[in-house]
Specification:
This protein has 426 residues and is an alpha/beta fold. It has helices spanning 36-42, 51-61, 86-89, 95-101, 112-116, 129-148, 178-187, 212-217, 273-290, 322-332, 347-361, 400-422, and strands at 2-3, 9-10, 30-33, 66-67, 76-80, 154-157, 201-205, 229-236, 262-267, 294-298, 336-340.
Length: 426
């Protein structure tokens, strides 16, 4: 095996153009969205300084992004993203927000307009914000183009997943709504074989925090038609816990605001692999009823044990773990998948987790007992110097009674979703 080139494919200058493949003629490789420019600018994100750099350095240290020779299949296709254009950003964001955010200096948060656009507190202006917005949006849209154009069935963009950014405001460490832009991009896909069929896009969010901006963007209460987009967020919710939104609660079919295509599974503190294992049949049922053509998974890591948020006790391995969930989605679910990043504020653990998930997506899972390779970032992984992110000792407050409450609610929710799908003309 020999090290791959940084660039295995170049996305055309127009995102709506077809992406040309240089991959294997056998099973399609996983598309890994990467460029040095993307890593550098993502590493400037104030909430996660140098996280991107450590993630990509560990992926490379394990030798995952390699070109196989001989009879072995190529596991990865490294794809260089291109920056998003203004028109692509305007598919969701307002002109005023983009003009302000992308044309201010890093000390502009003192201006009155900064508050209007959310560019203060947890979303301060920073040097390179314009490049950050266009690079991250472009990277996620590149991943979407790769799966749309049938270059790969799975694409990975760990610098994406900014699920709190709103139409005209930054929020929750998120400056650009790349998740929403990708959904809008994929729902416009036209299949040559079925030109009249509108694709269905399922957005699944595994971050500790509710996907407020994404869920709100596609929330259509009172509609009687079948939606092309279904959002499902699994997250923690409690009084005052960010983000505060009525959509973060367990859906109620009798609520006038109920929309069976905007779903939430709120969990209590201490949620563990056992918790996710218990609720996972609900996720499977939603997927089976909706039958998505594309699945976008926001793989936020702030629910893992050891994260400074200290709210969940999720682990990387074992039944019900993050790795277990991603394996099922990538290898057992029908449809094409785009894996995005998100939260995660223990930087070494973020590198561990996304490196492991990269290997899982390609069907070559690393051993969680594997030693961290000795490379320039080695000392960041003390004291264990292994890949695993195990559970801690936090008590799981998700009781059997609470699980039954969730399951009872979803009996009605799934029935409502099924009824809407039966009447579908898509």
């Amino acid at each position: 095996m020999e090290a791959s080139s940084i660039v295995a494919s170049q996305i055309p200058s127009q995102m709506d153009s077809r992406v040309e493949s240089t991959g294997s003629p056998h099973a399609k490789p996983v598309a890994y969205i990467f460029s040095e420019d993307l890593v550098k600018i993502s590493s400037r994100l104030p909430s996660n300084r140098n996280r991107s750099l450590l993630v990509y350095s560990l992926v490379h240290a394990y030798g995952l992004l390699t070109t196989c020779t001989g009879q072995a299949p190529q596991r990865f296709l490294v794809v260089r993203p291109r920056p998003a254009g203004k028109k692509e950003l305007l598919a969701y964001h307002t002109h005023d927000y983009l003009e302000y955010a992308m044309n201010q200096s890093s000390d502009a948060q003192s201006l009155p307009e900064a508050s209007e656009f959310g560019l203060e507190d947890d979303c301060p202006m920073f040097h390179g914000i314009k490049d950050y917005i266009i690079q991250v949006a472009g990277a996620t849209l590149t991943g979407a183009a790769v799966i749309r154009d049938d270059i790969s069935d799975v694409a990975i963009c760990w610098d994406g997943g900014r699920h709190h950014a709103k139409k005209a405001q930054a929020s929750g460490f998120c400056y650009v709504a790349d998740c929403i832009l990708a959904i809008l991009f994929l729902k416009r896909t036209v299949s040559p074989a079925h030109p009249s069929k509108k694709p269905r896009v399922m957005y699944l969010d595994l971050d500790l925090h509710f996907s407020d901006a994404v869920s709100q963007a596609f929330h259509k209460p009172g509609s009687t038609t079948t939606a092309q987009v279904l959002t499902l967020s699994i997250h923690h919710t409690a009084p005052g816990f960010f983000p505060v939104s009525p959509l973060a609660s367990l859906p109620d079919v009798d609520d006038p605001a109920f929309d069976p295509f905007t779903l939430s599974v709120p969990l209590k503190a201490g949620a563990s692999a056992k918790t996710f294992l218990r609720i996972w049949p609900i996720i499977e049922h939603v997927k089976d009823i909706f039958r998505p053509d594309f699945i976008i998974v926001q793989c936020g890591l702030d629910g893992l044990a050891g994260d400074p948020m200290a709210t969940f006790n999720w682990s990387l391995g074992g039944e019900g773990s993050l790795g277990w969930c991603i394996h099922r989605i990538v290898h057992e679910w029908h449809g094409k998948k785009l894996l995005l990043g998100g939260g995660g504020y223990n930087t070494p653990n973020a590198a561990r987790a996304w490196t492991y998930l990269t290997s899982v997506a390609a069907g070559i899972p690393l051993s969680l007992d594997a030693d961290i390779p000795e490379y320039s970032g080695y000392l960041r992984f003390k004291p264990s110097f292994t890949l695993d992110v195990p559970a801690g000792n936090m008590q799981d407050q998700n009781t059997e009674e609470y699980f039954q409450t969730i399951e009872a609610a979803y009996e009605g929710i799934l029935s409502a979703l099924r009824s809407r799908m039966v009447s579908s003309t898509l």
